[in-house]
């Protein structure tokens, strides 16, 4: 898994690499500019595209100047370079690259007035005004320029980060450049994974600029990005001579009169994620649907005289999808939490816990909560932004010794040891009802098979998103049923990669 570093740690990685590899900073800048240009050429394929490269006074601007020279070298014949030289202080590497540009006889236009940019007919703007050196809010000429770049409504490609975008920390009242794409150096910025980043960029790509990997891995950071190699390492292939008993028995306490589908979806996901046996504890009225739709799955009718002793036989228990908020379900939840066993808690079970904080306090360590934004805020109070929501999730996970899977496009898996694993898979085609029920089924099946709680959470969330990504290659909308059916193919794909 990738150790995601803060901007300050990245500066240290930068300095360490310069020293360790005996590479001057100007050469590192050249590497960064070359890596940017490689991706830029895939994005802007027509060499006669009219391009404006707007460069600030620091190293981000220095990158911009190097990019202008390299684009000219690649045959991009219609580039204009604008210098946003509002500040007297220019970085050394900026000045070297300015001299190199002049040597290459490429003209530059100082933006003594921001409005000069308005006359440019460029269809693509490269934003190299300010990068990760941003250390105060945009004001004055920088703000006017950032506003103009966004208002011109061209395709904006930002170098490293859009001007005005903080790599980490709360993203409130964003007033910087709105980019279509940010081509970031070495690692994605933490804030790319937060929904508020939508104000600043539509998408991002990351290019490797060869910073010292060992140094990056050795830095202490609670932020991790799950990578395909992690999943391949975690996933255990099925064994010779194994049988259904080898892969555990998953129980899903789910479904109600009008939300029986949630139980079926979770059960379908558990079945296809490989639980040896799956049982659904559902109202009697759901039996025909279950037996018809999923003949492999067993039923435990949820009647008033259901004895709590029966739960002993299951290796993993989830409660919540489509459960309903009735008093008898609240009572059942209380009884199950009273067993002091780790549980997967989703949907209505989370909503019941929101009003019964006394039972929430009794939740066994090693449990997994899977809230979406609203469920999370009902449980732990309202949050004004995602940065503070994730901070609360991590604190709660540590204090309660549980895992909190805070769901979104990029789901945050908060572990009891304080690590926060960001999941990179998943896409908007998956934004439809029942998707969370499928995730609950996946997690429960992995726990039943013996994965540790942390591994099940990281692996399950990744699998869910990766399956959605595969399906989204051929369809604009992915349904929860389709996703559940497709899980074995994702598993197979990962297992093939291990061989
Ligand atoms: N390893 C890497 O990641 C590599 C990074 N590289 C590149 O370096 C970039 C970072 O460059 P950088 O440190 O020179 O800062 P940059 O963003 O150009 O800003 C310049 C100066 O502006 C100032 N300033 C700040 N906020 C301001 C504001 N609101 N309004 C006005 N001024 C403001 C502030 O100076 P101050 O005012 O504090 O003196 C700041 O120092 C990075 O994004 C990437 O493109 C690659 O070349 C190589 C490898
Ligand atoms: N835009 C998106 N990108 C990636 N994943 C998404 C997106 N929208 C929803 N999902 C995923 O789908 C699931 C939705 O969960 P939830 O809201 O609980 O669904 P439901 O209650 O309908 O079952 C989460 O795992 C979430 O990460």
UniProtKB/TrEMBL annotation:
Q: Where does (6S)-NADPHX bind?
A: 59-63, 131-137, 160, 262, 322, 372, 437
Q: Which UniProt keywords apply?
A: ATP-binding, Isomerase, Lyase, Metal-binding, Multifunctional enzyme, NAD, NADP, Nucleotide-binding, Potassium
PROSITE patterns to which the protein is assigned, alphabetical: YJEF_C_1, YJEF_C_2, YJEF_C_3, YJEF_N
Q: Read off the Pfam families from this record.
A: Carb_kinase (PF01256), YjeF_N (PF03853)
Note accompanying the cofactor annotation: Binds 1 potassium ion per subunit.
The residues the record assigns to binding AMP are: 407-411, 436
Classification via CDD domains? YXKO-related
Every copy of the YjeF C-terminal domain together lies at: 227-494
Co-factor(s): K(+); Mg(2+)
Q: What is its EC number?
A: 4.2.1.136, 5.1.99.6
Domain YjeF N-terminal residue range list: 10-217
Q: Which residues bind K(+)?
A: 60, 127, 163
**Which residue ranges traverse the bilayer?**
none
Q: Which domain of life is it from?
A: Bacteria
Range of residues in the leader sequence: none
**Catalysed reactions, semicolon-separated:** (6S)-NADPHX + ADP = AMP + phosphate + NADPH + H(+); (6R)-NADPHX = (6S)-NADPHX; (6S)-NADHX + ADP = AMP + phosphate + NADH + H(+); (6R)-NADHX = (6S)-NADHX
Question: What PANTHER family does the entry give?
Answer: ATP-DEPENDENT (S)-NAD(P)H-HYDRATE DEHYDRATASE, ATP-DEPENDENT (S)-NAD(P)H-HYDRATE DEHYDRATASE FAMILY MEMBER
Q: Which family does it belong to?
A: In the C-terminal section; belongs to the NnrD/CARKD family. In the N-terminal section; belongs to the NnrE/AIBP family.
Could you tell me what this protein does? Catalyzes the epimerization of the S- and R-forms of NAD(P)HX, a damaged form of NAD(P)H that is a result of enzymatic or heat-dependent hydration. This is a prerequisite for the S-specific NAD(P)H-hydrate dehydratase to allow the repair of both epimers of NAD(P)HX. Bifunctional enzyme that catalyzes the epimerization of the S- and R-forms of NAD(P)HX and the dehydration of the S-form of NAD(P)HX at the expense of ADP, which is converted to AMP. This allows the repair of both epimers of NAD(P)HX, a damaged form of NAD(P)H that is a result of enzymatic or heat-dependent hydration.
On assembly, the entry states: Homotetramer.
What is the protein's given name?
Answer: Bifunctional NAD(P)H-hydrate repair enzyme
Gene source species: Pedobacter albus
């Amino acid at each position: 898994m990738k150790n995601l570093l803060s901007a300050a740690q990245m500066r240290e990685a930068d300095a360490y690499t310069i020293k360790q590899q005996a590479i001057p900073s100007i050469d590192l800048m050249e590497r960064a500019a070359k890596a940017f240009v490689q991706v830029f050429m895939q994005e802007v394929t027509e060499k006669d595209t009219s391009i404006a490269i707007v460069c600030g006074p620091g190293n981000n601007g220095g990158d911009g100047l190097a990019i202008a020279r390299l684009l000219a070298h690649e045959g991009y014949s219609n580039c204009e370079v604008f210098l946003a030289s509002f500040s007297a202080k220019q970085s050394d590497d900026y000045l070297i690259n300015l001299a190199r540009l002049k040597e290459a006889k490429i003209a530059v236009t100082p933006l003594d007035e921001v409005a000069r940019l308005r006359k440019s007919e460029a269809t693509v703007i490269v934003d190299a005004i300010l990068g990760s050196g941003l250390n105060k809010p945009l004001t004055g000429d920088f703000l006017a320029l950032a506003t103009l770049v966004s208002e011109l409504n061209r395709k904006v490609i930002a170098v490293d980060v859009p001007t005005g975008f903080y790599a980490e920390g709360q993203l409130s009242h964003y007033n910087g450049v709105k980019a279509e794409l940010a081509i970031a150096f070495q690692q994605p910025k933490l804030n790319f994974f937060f929904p508020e980043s939508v104000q600043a960029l539509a998408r991002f790509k990351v290019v490797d600029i060869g910073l010292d990997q060992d140094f990056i891995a050795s830095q202490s950071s609670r932020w991790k990005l799950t990578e395909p190699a992690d999943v391949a390492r975690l996933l255990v292939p099925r064994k010779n001579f194994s049988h259904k008993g080898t892969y555990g028995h998953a129980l899903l306490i789910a479904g109600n009169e009008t939300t029986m589908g949630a139980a079926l979806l979770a059960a379908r996901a558990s079945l296809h994620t490989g639980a040896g046996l799956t049982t659904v504890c559902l109202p009697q009225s759901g039996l025909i649907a279950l037996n018809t739709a999923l003949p492999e799955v067993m039923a435990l009718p949820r009647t008033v005289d259901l004895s709590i002793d029966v739960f002993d036989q299951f290796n993993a228990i989830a409660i919540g999808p489509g459960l309903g908020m009735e008093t008898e379900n609240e009572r059942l939840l209380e009884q199950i939490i009273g067993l002091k066993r780790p549980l997967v808690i989703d949907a209505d079970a989370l909503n019941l816990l929101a009003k019964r904080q006394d039972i929430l306090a009794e939740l066994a360590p090693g449990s997994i909560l899977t809230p979406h934004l609203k469920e999370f805020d009902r449980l732990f109070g309202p949050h004004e932004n995602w940065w503070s929501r994730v901070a609360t999730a991590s604190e709660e996970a540590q204090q309660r010794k549980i895992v909190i899977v805070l769901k979104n496009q990029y789901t945050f898996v908060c572990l009891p040891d304080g690590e926060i694993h960001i999941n990179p898979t998943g896409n908007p085609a998956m934004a439809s009802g029942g998707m969370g029920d499928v995730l609950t089924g996946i997690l429960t099946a992995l726990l039943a098979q013996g994965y540790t709680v942390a591994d099940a959470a990281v692996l399950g969330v990744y699998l869910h998103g990766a399956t959605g990504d595969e399906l989204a290659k051929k369809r604009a909308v992915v349904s929860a049923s389709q996703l559940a059916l497709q899980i074995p193919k994702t598993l197979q794909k990962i297992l093939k990669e291990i061989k």
